[in-house]
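The protein record filed here:
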Amino acid sequence: MAKVVKNLTLDPEAVERGERFSRKRGTTISRIVSDFLSGLPEESDDALAPAVGRLLGIAKGKGDERSYHRYLEKKYLR
């Protein structure tokens, strides 16, 4: 695929850190940025990571704090 030239404005500290990281990994800052951008989800900003979504699903409709305390007492004290 053809490459696209894009000018970025970055903090000097971030550039220095990126240069050190890229030297250690034998890559380039462009490759690091490209890999990062390629890993971004295509969903909307409201989308949750799968693990977070599963955790929220567990919590839905499971009662209140008091019932959770009773569950813990039953599990660990009996």
User: Anything to note?
Assistant: The chain has a mean pLDDT of 80.
